[in-house]
Amino acid sequence: MAKHQIDVSVKSAYVDNQSAPESNRYVFAYTVRITNRGSVAARLLTRHWVITDANNKVQEVRGPGVVGEQPYLAPGKSFEYSSGAVLETPFGSMRGSYQMIADDGVEFDAEIPAFVLTIPRTLH
To answer: Where are the domains of the chain?
Structure first.
């Protein structure tokens, strides 16, 4: 078992009632589950997101914690939260990383695998 292993999974959904396609506003919600699969507890310090729309416009978002928290994950524990993103196109993608610090003082990045933001029935 690795000492420092954080698994990240994401589910995304289109938010129709907050979107305005005629104004190039597409709102997506996503739920992230962060699980400590390592043997050492760790705290999430900061986040870094790379959000890319269908026009290859890239937004980078950095900041402390997630949803106002810096969750502490003991081995085997998970933290789940929901947030959102607004794009100018009906589809795009997000990826990134969380910067973590383990109880043994080691700082490391937990990768957030790329996931797609898309309105239903646009990708076949």
So the answer is: 6-118
